[in-house]
Amino acid sequence: MSAENENVTQQGADTTEDAASEKISVSTKDLSHEDRKMLKGIFLHSFNIFAMYGGGAKAGASGFLWALAPAFERFYPDKERRTDAMVRHSSWYNITSNVGTFCMGLVAAMERENSQHPDFDTQSIDAIKASLMGPMSGIGDAIFWGVLRVIAAAVGMALCAQTGTILGPLVFLIIYNVPSILCRWCLTVLGYRVGSNFITKLEEGGLMDLITKLAGVLGLIMIGAMTASFVKFNCAITIPAGSGDPVKVQTYLDTIFKGLVPILYTLGCVKLLKKNVNVTWLIVGTMVIGLALGFLGIC
């Protein structure tokens, strides 16, 4: 009897492991043709979900409805039920577009269940969608806006500054968009296959906070490196020292803190941005200050 229990337990464990490995798959090979067609439609529609972004309580709703249109058309051939589903999702939606497809795939899976089970609680769909906005946006903003965009910009600007080649903007677009496109597709499939358990496990294990924190630290490192590499200031002022060589002010500045003026200027710009100063004025002001300092022979 004990051996039988052990065999049953082992089989159950194997089944659980197989189910877990299946859940985290982003392959569409075992999905039906209709599933693959629908997911491709959601994926393609996701690229312009913010093409029309209104304000107020329904901000982002039109884009989300557009992205989920393939799912609504498939699961609700009846016009009345399809209209009800679209009305339910006519609410505020705002997730970083690069990772928002996970929510779309998840909602599509839940709408499939709703279409098959009349007693399905539709409020759970809205609750899951709302609960995903915070954590998914936190990860998406940290990785794509805080890290990947900064790295792509650093590489692109370095190519432009050092070689003057037109490849700089192209490299920027490639570095940023290739991972973004892959992420969109994989998360579309993952959301449809895995469901809400994936995010729940990440939050319970503390991985969500860890990923966000690590991405934020990496982004700060990249911003610091870019400040040191691209914000240049070389003071040309010298102080006569009698019969000896004149004293260079820049030498003393480097002794105090190398790159002191660039980092102070960068922090000053950050302070102004936090006070809602328009970034255009900061750019124009930087150009004017640079021209003035160069004209006066200060740097």
Automatic annotation (TrEMBL):
Pfam families: EIID-AGA. It comes from the Bacteria. Keywords: Membrane, Transmembrane, Transmembrane helix. GO terms for biological process: phosphoenolpyruvate-dependent sugar phosphotransferase system. The chain crosses the membrane at residues 50-72, 92-110, 142-160, 167-190, 210-231, 279-298. Residues 1-14 have a biased composition (Polar residues). GO terms for cellular component: plasma membrane. InterPro entries: GatZ_KbaZ_carbometab, PTS_IID_man. Residues 1-28 are annotated as: Disordered. This is PTS system mannose/fructose/sorbose family transporter subunit IID.
